[in-house]
Amino acid sequence: MDLGLSDEQRMLQDMVRDLCEDRFPLTALRRLESDDDGLDRDFWHALADQGLCGISIAEAHGGHGLGLLECALVHEQFGYHLAQSPHLASSVLAASFIEAAGDASLSAALLPGIADGSRIVAIASSEAGRGEDLSDQQAVLRRDPKGVRISGTKHFVSFASIADDLIVFGRDEQGGHVVALAVSPGADGITLRRQQTMASEPCFEVQFEDVFVPSERVFADGADPTEAWRAAMSKACVVIAAAATGAARRIHEISTAYAKEREAFGKPIGAFQAIAHYLADAIVEIEGARVLYRNAAWMHDEARPYALEAAIAKLQACNIFRRASALGIQVHGGLGYTTEADPQLFYRRAKQWQILNGSEAWLTEEISRLDASGGHAGV
């Protein structure tokens, strides 16, 4: 196992870092918190111009066909800068599911647009009181002579208001199995409502009232999408772990810099062991999270089973980000809780990233299931 980076990978990191520093300072994030769509279009177009929207999509579909490690390195920089975009939802989660689902027609229709950034695809899977497991889906599909009709409500659909397509999961009324659909958000019977989240990220409740979906928009002729979904979630877990690692490092740097400047009793507060030791422990944990996500990504790129490592990486990285952001609040004292200060931007996102796209409870169950089935962590 070699977790070092090649010259090309370091150049990729540098390019994304420079792009985020130039196009997405924290002031841009603050502005987007009150924006209905939550999308900085100039930043998104810049990502597309650099080819980042298709970084891990196969070359046959217009992407670059790079590995999961390269994609994770990009998201570590996104996390460091809290750069908000549909990249995770569309270029990672949706694109990974579409490729894994194996529907040639829908792959040809959707993936080239995702790869060049002209098409944004969101995932509509979460339901109230239900977990990430597709077996809990309650949205109902009824067969129609020319396709299917779906009714139900999905929650926390990222960037649904600007999406060109929604990947929706529902349960066949007759067979009882889960089916995946590609649905246009503008179809009759769809209603969107912005949902409030801790991080003020653009998440929506999407209601489907007898929405007609033509048969050519049903994935793999209604085949069970469970394995494709698990494959996509494993990739997303690695990418989120990378973003959480980057964000944790940034709030740690902010906290360390403040501890060197803020004085109490005639010397910087960082000189006190009560603060210095906590900051030292935190950076060790952050480096550990980096090793975990890079190991999981490396295993994927080496065509080795990695779902267990992916779940561990996401669980640990998000927990560490949560602790690092809480420490940042404490180091800043009362200032850290104010909206004028930056630490709260990280603190609120840390908890939301823990919950969405693989909650702590679901990840714990996945780790137990995968370990019992014979998987072994690589670290």
UniProtKB/TrEMBL annotation:
<dbReference type="Pfam" id="PF00441">
    <property type="entry name" value="Acyl-CoA_dh_1"/>
</dbReference>
<keyword id="KW-0560">Oxidoreductase</keyword>
<dbReference type="InterPro" id="IPR009075">
    <property type="entry name" value="AcylCo_DH/oxidase_C"/>
</dbReference>
<keyword id="KW-0274">FAD</keyword>
<feature type="domain" description="Acyl-CoA oxidase/dehydrogenase middle">
    <location>
        <begin position="122"/>
        <end position="211"/>
    </location>
</feature>
<dbReference type="GO" id="GO:0050660">
    <property type="term" value="F:flavin adenine dinucleotide binding"/>
</dbReference>
<dbReference type="Pfam" id="PF02770">
    <property type="entry name" value="Acyl-CoA_dh_M"/>
</dbReference>
<dbReference type="InterPro" id="IPR037069">
    <property type="entry name" value="AcylCoA_DH/ox_N_sf"/>
</dbReference>
<comment type="similarity">
    <text>Belongs to the acyl-CoA dehydrogenase family.</text>
</comment>
<keyword id="KW-0285">Flavoprotein</keyword>
<protein>
    <submittedName>
        <fullName>Acyl-CoA dehydrogenase</fullName>
    </submittedName>
</protein>
<dbReference type="InterPro" id="IPR006091">
    <property type="entry name" value="Acyl-CoA_Oxase/DH_mid-dom"/>
</dbReference>
<dbReference type="GO" id="GO:0003995">
    <property type="term" value="F:acyl-CoA dehydrogenase activity"/>
</dbReference>
<dbReference type="InterPro" id="IPR036250">
    <property type="entry name" value="AcylCo_DH-like_C"/>
</dbReference>
<dbReference type="Pfam" id="PF02771">
    <property type="entry name" value="Acyl-CoA_dh_N"/>
</dbReference>
<dbReference type="InterPro" id="IPR013786">
    <property type="entry name" value="AcylCoA_DH/ox_N"/>
</dbReference>
<feature type="domain" description="Acyl-CoA dehydrogenase/oxidase C-terminal">
    <location>
        <begin position="238"/>
        <end position="369"/>
    </location>
</feature>
<dbReference type="InterPro" id="IPR009100">
    <property type="entry name" value="AcylCoA_DH/oxidase_NM_dom_sf"/>
</dbReference>
<dbReference type="InterPro" id="IPR046373">
    <property type="entry name" value="Acyl-CoA_Oxase/DH_mid-dom_sf"/>
</dbReference>
<feature type="domain" description="Acyl-CoA dehydrogenase/oxidase N-terminal">
    <location>
        <begin position="6"/>
        <end position="117"/>
    </location>
</feature>
